Amino acid sequence: MRILPSTAHIEVSEQDGVDSIENVNTGPFVWLVAGAASIAGSLFGYDTGIISAVLVYLGTDLNHHTASANEKELITSLCSGGAFIGAIIAGLTADNYGRKRAIYAGCCLFTIGALIQATSYTISQMAVGRLIVGFGVGSAAMVVPMYIAEIAPTKVRGRMIGLNNMSITGGQVISYGIGAAFAHVTHGWRYMVGLGAVPAIILACILPFCPESPRQLIYHGKIEEATRVIQRIYKQASPEQVRAKVALIAAATEESKALNENESRWVKVKKLHTNPAYFRALVCACGLMVISQMSGFNTLMYYSSTLFALVGFSNPVAVGLVVASVNFIMTWVNMMTVDPIGRRRVLICTVWGMSAGLLAVAVAFHFIPVNTHTLVLEATTVSAPAIVVLVFIIWFVFFYGVSVGNTAWMSTDFFPMEVRAMGTMFLTCSCWGSNIIVSSTFLTMMKSMTPSGAFGFYAAICGIGWVLIYFFYPEVSGLTLEEIGEVFQHGFGVSYARQLRNDRKDIIVERLRSNEMSIPVGH
Fold first, then answer.
1. Which partner for 82 in 131, 324, 356, 402 could form a disulfide, CB atoms 3.0-4.6 Å apart?
2. Domain named Major facilitator superfamily (MFS) profile: which ranges (predicted)?
3. How many angstroms separate the CA atoms of 317 and 398, rounded?
4. If you write DSSP's letter for every residue of 307-360 in order, what string do you get?
5. Is 371 helix (H, G, I), strand (E, B) or coil?
6. What confidence category does residue 516 fall into, taking pLDDT thresholds of 50, 70 and 90?
7. For residue 461, what are the CA distances in angstroms to 389, 455, 468, 474, 519?
8. Average pLDDT rounded to a whole number, residues 178-199
9. Is the pLDDT of residue 267 over 90?
């Protein structure tokens, strides 16, 4: 039985079939726009990477004493706390003021916060700078994946959102390189945090050349402007295909407006939790994000220098650079494979590897003599178990980078237009909420549970996550945003999405056969 989404009633010619503009080759314009917007990802990536080196080289520059473990956790987690708040504010305003303005706000806040950090002489001043940086990171992290999802053609949407993930991991690699470069410079940590303002300033200068999301333009009644944007995105599309695409988006937008008419933001939040389809999309998207963050990956970003110093490496920042580079490479692999292979298949084939790697790290730590009260290594050389820790951390990052670390951000397309901003807000908040927990408890867990217990806990999270993904995460690669809105109308939509994708393939095959039969043979 063939399944078609409810939006199939929109008047599109039979030859076009289901949204045939998606089969048209796209020009460089949309890739340039997505790439420019993705610079925002480097703000998040740079901050998570640079704080690792900063914590090692702060010395006594703040309050004239060496920062304690609790002070380090506070400095680290405040950025996540600010990002949590920034994501909420961006989510509440993104529909009314547009996607681009929220990105502008993120750039300004990040720049201000970076400069405050660079000039800090007290823990409290550093904390304020971290909080303001968090506001900027949260705003950009919430809006950019949604913006890219709304401008991206269906067949490359996963790859384009992957550009943002590439930017995040690229920012981490750059931060480790800068950390190593300034490691032995007097007050070098100030240069480390201050340079974080550079990508924010670059993005703010590029944004005027990027269009607003066509869906957002149509939402505000700017049909002609949206049509011009779609023409630039689908450079080779016919006028009929462009009109059909505009009609498809307009119909979905009008339906969203009708559902949201005269509704307050609180009602939208309530609807997201009381409408079964919306709530299933929310659980699925946020659940995957929580798995990605609670796997403990960001402990490697925030505390990698501390962690590798703990097991005996003399240049922990350089070792952290290796780990960040592996993550960057695997993010590129994810970007190139996620659309043709499918998100669900990638996740099922990789999340188990994350759990196995963390379990091996937990076992190896059992044989490393660490004073759990001071988190100081009770040895003077790099032992064989320390090498095992490094190898399996790289193993873990290999599987993380190619799967959940990047795929979790793609779930912005789970939410229909009427709740997309709110849904993406909750998705981003689930990221930062989990981040707050991880960043503020890691050193404490290492002391109270031992390093083996801490990494064993993260391994269990990944194992449980694999089971949940298998049963509840649908495959939406290759579906339009309007079709994805139908998936969660049918439970968690695992079977329905599979059938819908098969039907889409059948339609394409039938069209190709029809075109072949219509070609005259000989003259």
1. 131
2. 33-477
3. 19
4. HHHHTT-S-HHHHHHHHHHHHHHHHHHHHHHHHHH-HHHHHHHHHHHHHHHHHH
5. strand
6. low
7. 19, 10, 11, 20, 56
8. 90
9. no
Give the CA count within 13 Å in the CB-facing half-sphere of 186. Answer: 0
**Domain spans in the chain, listed from the N-terminal domain onward:** 14-511
Q: How far is CA 329 from CA 20, 77, 296, 320, in A?
A: 33, 27, 19, 14
Task: Tell which residue, 110, 133, 447, 119, has the closest CA to residue 303.
Answer: 447
- State the pTM of this model: 0.76
Cβ atoms of 193 and 114 closer than 8 Å:
yes
Dig out the tokens for 73 from the structure: 């956790």
Lowest mean pLDDT among 104-113, 231-240, 264-273: 264-273
Contact in structure between 213 and 151 (CB atoms under 8 Å): yes
Residues 9-29: pLDDT tens digits? 434 343 344 457 777 777 788
Cα gap 250→237, rounded to integer Å: 18
Give the span between the Cα atoms of 447 and 374, in whole angstroms: 8
Instruction: Tell me which range, 56-60, 69-73, 118-122, 268-272, is most confidently predicted by mean pLDDT.
Output: 118-122
Q: What is the mean pLDDT of residues 242-262?
A: 81
Interatomic CA distance for residues 347 and 373, integer angstroms: 37
For the record, the structure tokens of 66 come out as 């060496």
Distance CA 171, CA 48 (A): 9
- Per-residue confidence (pLDDT) for residue 380, from 0 to 100: 65
Comparing CA positions, the residue from 240, 229, 196 lying closest to residue 11 is 240
The torsion region of residue 522 among left (phi > 0), alpha (psi -120 to 50) and beta comes to left
Cα separations (Å) of 368 from 143, 260, 299, 372, 455? 43, 58, 19, 11, 14
